[in-house]
Design a protein that fits this description.
Length: 993
């Protein structure tokens, strides 16, 4: 690809960023709402990209081209890997409070996280974490870069948080839809997302934006400001930016089925397992308005003669209304006649806890960025950057803290006398009880991520043996501090003591004298009486669970690129380089969760308590652990671009090949490579391209050195001795893990700038990925059984079921066992019409689509069959997903319309749907179900802008215009696919001087 740029049209140190797909022809022009407000550099780049993606060989003044997904820097280079470009105009037209939301809409991005994902979590540490996932392979298999450089992880999985990036200065985002490990190293299995900043911005620009949902929540505020100026005759250039964003989030609703803001789409849908396989009816039933019958909002007796007695807010007993016309059996098991195991349909739903989940985490972010560059020679620069940022998030995982299966003594001092009498009449001294503990309030999770990232580098161009060579050296040091604090959560063993109340000397106290001596305060759980402050502090101390994590990343990278030889069809281009990377993390947690023996300087506010377990795991949730780990990476790469032919009869073609040798301190040496090429056919504007690659992902810090989590398994089956034993399951890292290996293949056809179809660009690419040695966790039983049958010998060292020196244990670890096979098709199309119907301005149409033909996961566990999740709308890989954009703009205003859509799907491809009376026998691999359907969704977004003055633009945006509700699922809702917020209004003002 050769692009002519006239002298002075762009800053002489800027390099034109393009890609190997048709989007190079339409980058940064999909929504040109106020092009006149952009810097001269950005506008020039957009114009050149739109005019000449397949232009003729360049003459003097041709700029080199940097292609994300390749290290080749050379005019005339065509990358074979499809890449989607999102330009600054499209970013601005989307008017999102976080640039992550704009990029995550792309169809090839499946399974990305964000502020609406992980909101139900207490312990993951990923609440509000914005990270990308390409091809549904997960964020850990997508490499995210900033100006082609790595970014320190914001989580021990190694993924960065896009909220910490300097967003106002982003002028372009390249999304490489294919493996790029040979060029960029580990993690680029699904592809690369590269954020490109305007490093030589001149002037002052800013943005002030606000937003709110149609339900009056998730108030959003965004303030951004950036400035850039050159000194010393343009040799010294400084850029600074700062931004503050505040998204209030959407909190949980009340108990029952009422969501926040009056949203009425929640139906407590549940998948019931009848556990009957061959009676002609479905084994699984997918039904709405499920009612768990082992707890209620203010308490329910769940078994025995008094089963079905509930308590209202005032503490008065009443007969609970079971759904399905159910009646309590009164047996010790607590079953309900006429209901399904564990659930009824309808009835009193007031105790359901799922409606208490946050729909979106609240996110506050403060970001500062600066860059100082000095041209010590023409086309040679030394520079330094800093990116200091903070992101705070909060969420409510669920309503209350439900505790079923509690044993309550009939002599409990808080129990109404009528119930005590019924106990006596029935001849019982205790009963089983369940409550969602509404009286204790709701747990809150707060995260605080702070990033300190510094980069220093040299880059430029030097003549070597008669040809110009580009070099790029940088050193990056990044540190991320992540604090997780949980408030309003119980210590389960203290709760168990506090609810056992007796009367002593006329005063209600805790029954256990040891508990009383250690500060126990009694708690009344029969009804909705507000507990005393002393009882709340005993059960839920203000110094709740916490985790303190520090991660560091050091990277030194040196790359060279040039064209040493002119061959028969053009220059031979070469890129080579080396990189060193060191990753480290350490984490501390509170002693009630991590264990008293693991006390640290942070833990002095947690007093010893003989009623708590010294080993930790005392909290209802959020039992964080201590740990640390580190690894180093040394690697070198070589990339070649060989022109094959270039003439008018057969067109122009090149072969691009790369190899990378990587040495991991934990797992040794591994290689990655790619071979591909492009062929510009003699039919002008038509190109064929293809590439196949071997890509790798090394195990991350979490997988290698996970802080241990301990669980007691009282009736664990020992297949070696055919007995049940007590086992301690220790979830730990596995330092023996080896890198995952992927084979990526892509081939397709692209059409752009054809004189016989002016203004139209089109590409169709087929992709296929096979991921082997995939790192996945196994349960304790799986580990023992796989050793027992001889399938996984490595697992045999992970347990001891006859330990003479301590408790029996199983170390629950991840292993290189599973695999994924996926394939599909990407389609992109655009059309740009200057002066449509004689009107001044530009009409732009653009569409992107991804069709997933299959997404097959094989756990590697004997007795299971591979599972195809393509088209399963419970996940992130629907059959079809597309994004379409239409925009019109002129010098005064712009109008913008966007459609997001994904196809109908199923609950699972392994299910056999059938009606009662006609079902075949249900099996483990192909169970029967009454319905196997989840509707897709269509969302319409509209926006527009008005150029108030030269450099000042007012704009608006409405997302989900029709307020389309999400499709319920057995797991509440799937925010990976569905919009859970509803209609959102945004408006703001931008300026650029």
């Amino acid at each position: 690809m050769r692009v002519k740029i006239s002298a002075g049209s762009v800053n002489r140190h800027a390099r034109l960023m393009v890609t190997g797909s048709l989007t190079a022809a339409i980058a940064m022009m999909a929504c040109p709402s106020h092009a006149q407000a952009q810097s001269a550099q950005t506008t020039s780049q957009a114009d050149q990209q739109s005019e000449a993606p397949f232009a003729a060989p360049a003459s003097e003044g041709t700029q080199d081209i940097v292609v994300t997904g390749s290290r080749i820097v050379s005019s005339g280079f065509n990358a074979p890997t499809p890449t989607t470009v999102i330009g600054v105009d499209e970013i601005e037209a989307n008017a999102q409070p976080n640039i992550f939301n704009t990029i995550a809409q792309l169809p090839s991005l499946q399974g990305s996280t964000g502020s609406t994902v992980n909101t139900f979590s207490t312990s993951s540490g990923q609440q509000g974490l914005s990270s990308f996932s390409l091809r549904g392979l997960g964020p850990i298999r997508t490499l995210t870069l900033l100006d082609g450089q790595r970014v320190v992880g914001a989580n021990v999985t190694g993924v960065p948080d896009i909220s910490l990036f300097p967003q106002l200065l982003i002028k372009q985002v390249d999304v490489v839809n294919g493996g790029a490990s040979a060029s960029y190293g580990s993690d680029a299995v699904g592809g690369v997302v590269n954020f490109i900043t305007d490093t030589h911005f001149e002037g002052i620009k800013g943005n002030v934006q606000g937003g709110i949902t149609t339900y009056g929540d998730d108030e959003q505020y965004l303030v951004q400001l950036a400035a850039g100026k050159s000194f010393l005759d343009g040799r010294l250039h400084a850029v600074l930016s700062a931004e503050y964003g505040d998204e209030k989030g959407v909190g949980g609703g009340d108990f029952g089925i009422g969501l926040a803001g009056g949203r009425d789409w929640f139906r407590q849908s549940t998948l019931f397992n009848r556990n009957v396989l061959n009676d002609g009816s479905p084994q699984y039933l997918y039904l709405d308005y499920a009612q768990p019958y082992n707890y209620t909002k203010y308490g329910l007796i769940t078994a025995g003669p008094l089963q079905g007695t509930a308590f209202d807010q005032a503490g008065n007993p009443f007969a609970f209304e079971y759904g399905s016309n159910g009646t309590p059996s009164g047996d010790a098991a607590g079953s309900v006649n006429g209901c399904y195991p564990g659930f009824c349909i309808g009835g009193d739903l007031s105790g359901n806890v799922d409606a208490g989940r946050s729909l979106q985490s609240g996110v506050k972010r403060l970001n500062t960025y600066g860059r100082l560059g000095f041209d010590f020679a023409p086309n040679n620069e030394i520079y330094a950057t800093f990116n200091i940022a903070q992101v705070k998030t909060h969420n409510q995982p669920v309503g209350g803290m439900n505790r079923p299966n509690l044993t309550i003594q009939c002599s409990n001092a808080y129990l109404p006398t009528s119930i005590q009498q019924e106990c006596a009449d029935a001849g019982i001294t205790s009963f089983t009880y369940g409550t969602s503990n509404a009286i204790l309030g709701n747990t809150q999770v707060h995260t605080d991520r702070r990033q300190y990232r510094f980069v220093g580098g040299l880059k430029g161009e030097v003549p070597v043996f008669g040809s110009d060579w580009n070099y790029d050296f940088y050193y990056e040091h990044g540190t991320n501090y992540t604090d997780v604090d949980i408030s309003n959560i119980m210590l389960s063993r203290r709760f168990n003591q506090a609810i056992q109340a007796i009367t002593l000397d006329g005063t209600i106290v805790c029954a256990d004298p040891v508990a009383r001596a250690n500060g126990c305060q009694p708690l009344n759980i029969f009804g909705g009486q507000t507990p005393s402050p002393a009882a709340l502090e005993y059960i839920m101390p203000s110094n709740g669970p916490y985790q303190r994590t520090r991660q560091t990343q050091d990277v030194a990278s040196l790359n060279f690129s040039g064209s040493p030889l002119d061959l028969w069809a053009g220059p031979l281009s070469v890129a080579f380089g080396a990189e060193f990377r060191h990753e480290f993390y350490t984490v501390y947690a509170d002693p009630y969760g991590a264990g008293v023996s693991e006390r640290t300087p942070y833990n002095q506010d947690y007093p010893q308590d003989p009623l708590l377990l010294d080993s930790g795991n005392n909290w209802y949730a959020g039992n964080y652990k201590n740990g640390e780990g580190a690894y180093s990476v040394k690697e070198a790469f070589l990339e070649l671009d060989l022109p094959l032919f270039d003439n008018s009869a057969i067109g122009r073609a090149n072969v691009n090949a790369a190899g990378r040798l990587t040495d991991y301190s934990t797992s040794g040496t591994v290689t990655a490579w790619k071979v591909g090429g492009t062929w510009d056919l003699p039919i002008e504007g038509l190109r064929l391209r293809g590439v196949t690659s071997r890509d790798v992902r090394a195990p991350n810090l979490s997988e290698l050195f996970a802080a241990p989590v301990t669980t007691t398994l009282p009736n664990f089956f020992d297949p070696f001795n055919n007995v049940n034993v007590l086992v301690i399951a220790n979830q730990i890292g596995n330092t023996e893990l080896t890198p995952e290996i992927a084979r990526n293949t892509t081939f397709g056809v692209a059409l752009a700038n054809a004189p016989w179809l002016p203004g139209l660009s089109l590409s169709v690419d087929y992709y296929k990925i096979k991921l082997t040695d995939m790192i996945s966790s196994l349960g304790a039983a799986d580990i023992v059984n796989l050793c027992y049958v001889g399938v996984l010998p490595d697992a045999c060292s992970a347990f001891n079921l006859n330990n003479q020196n301590g408790p029996n244990y199983v170390n629950v670890q991840a292993f290189n066992l599973a695999s994924i096979k996926t394939e599909g098709v990407d389609i992109e199309a655009s059309y740009r019409w200057q002066q449509p119907l004689g009107l001044d301005g530009t009409l732009t149409l653009r569409a992107l689509a991804t069709h997933i033909r299959k997404f097959v996961t094989d756990t590697g566990i004997p007795g299971t069959i591979p599972n195809d999740s393509a088209g399963v709308n419970l996940g992130s890989t629907p059959d079809w997903k597309w994004l379409a954009v239409q925009s019109y703009s002129n010098d005064l205003f712009s109008l913008y319309m966007q459609e997001r859509w994904f196809s109908d799907g199923v609950l699972g491809n392994n299910y056999v749907q059938c009606d009662a009376g006609s079902c075949p026998e249900s099996t483990v691999n192909h169970p029967t179900i009454n319905t196997n359907f989840m509707a897709g969704a269509f969302y319409l977004d509209v926006g527009g802008s008005l150029n108030v003055t030269d450099g000042v633009t007012a704009y608006f945006k409405v997302d989900n215009v029709f307020n389309r509700d999400p499709e319920p699922s057995p797991y509440f809702v799937n925010p990976n696919l569905y919009d859970v917020l509803g209609r959102v209004f945004r408006a703001g003002v931008r300026f650029n001087f």
